[in-house]
Amino acid sequence: MRSNKLGNSDLHVSSIGLGCVTFGREIDRDTAFAVMDRAMAAGITLFDTAEVYAAGRSEQIVGEWLAARGTRRQIVVATKVAGSLSYERVITSAEASLRRLQIDTIDLFQLHRWDPEIPLDETLAALDQLVQRGLVRYVGCSNYAAWQICKALWRQDVAGYAPFVAAQLNYSLAMRGIEDEHLPLCADQQLGVLAYSPLGAGFLTGKYAPGAPIPAGTRFDVVPGHEVGYFTTRNFAMLDLLRERATAWGTTMPQLALAWAFSRPGITSTLIGSRSPAHVDQALQAATLNLSSAQLAELSTLSDPQP
Predict the structure, then answer these.
(1) Is 53 noted as a catalytic residue in this protein?
(2) In a 3-state reduction of DSSP, which class is residue 13?
(3) How many CB atoms lie within 10 A of CB 159?
(4) Using CA atoms, how far apart are residues 103 and 239, in angstroms rounded to an integer?
């Protein structure tokens, strides 16, 4: 497993990271332990969770695993604060996450979403205080527009606050919007990029069809409304083409979608979500699929963003 430097930090993370959103929500503690065991055995060293994942249960399960396995030094732990980003809320959120994770320091603490109600400098001051207190090593953001990242970096530079070292962004064959502004910005400012949902929250597995009911137990069933942005005429047409390529090349749709995601330039680590150790194995197999440059280019053409 390749290890990459995360932005301007001294953190090094595996090129494939483990997204822990399913823990405590779609899978129980024992299954999550099996997933983490398999991930670590494969060389995956970045585990990403959040306070809102299963109302804190995901962090708790990750913390129990770290304590049970004695693996804290091997894992880069990333989590996020959501909702109001007031000074007090950011501080108390980090403290609560530390208790659930059973660790002394969070490696990467991220703002889950932009908060238009709280002055940006107030939020950034809280992040800086967490770093100064040693509760957090580095800070980052998630789901920020490019202009929001740029503004935050500017304010951090002006005030001398701890700067973002990474941005976590949605990126897949079905969601390529970050290519226009986010990726050039992150490259210019030397921010690490953590790409999540390489399978489009399951959309690229081919389990959904236009006009058909959403299958029970799938991500779009568990999180209603999550399909917005995926269920488009353009994406369903792309899905048909992806299915054709998978058949012609003797592989599967998830394998092709993952292989494409793992091949993309400018990405520090691609986060995979797993409901079982088999999903970790699926990602590992995709990473060794050895598609030709012509095949990867063809996959890109299937979903080229509209001008």
Answers:
(1) yes
(2) strand
(3) 11
(4) 42
What is the model's pLDDT at position 305? 60
- Which burial class, exposed, middle or buried, applies to 275 when counting CB atoms under 10 A from its CB (0-12, 13-18, 19+)? middle
Q: What is the largest CA-CA distance in the chain?
A: 56
Higher pLDDT, 305 or 172: 172
- Amino acid identity of residue 15, one-letter, is S
**Half-sphere exposure (Cβ direction) of 300: Cα atoms closer than 13 Å:** 13
Please give the Cα distance from 236 to 241 (Å, whole number). 9
Least Cα distance to 191 among 229, 144, 244 occurs for 144
Tokens of 129: 């205080």
Q: What is the pLDDT of residues 224-250, one digit of tens each?
A: 877 888 999 999 999 999 999 999 999
- Catalytic residue, chosen from 53, 161, 171, 208, is 53
* pTM of structure: 0.95
How many C-beta neighbours within 10 Å does residue 181 have?
A: 14
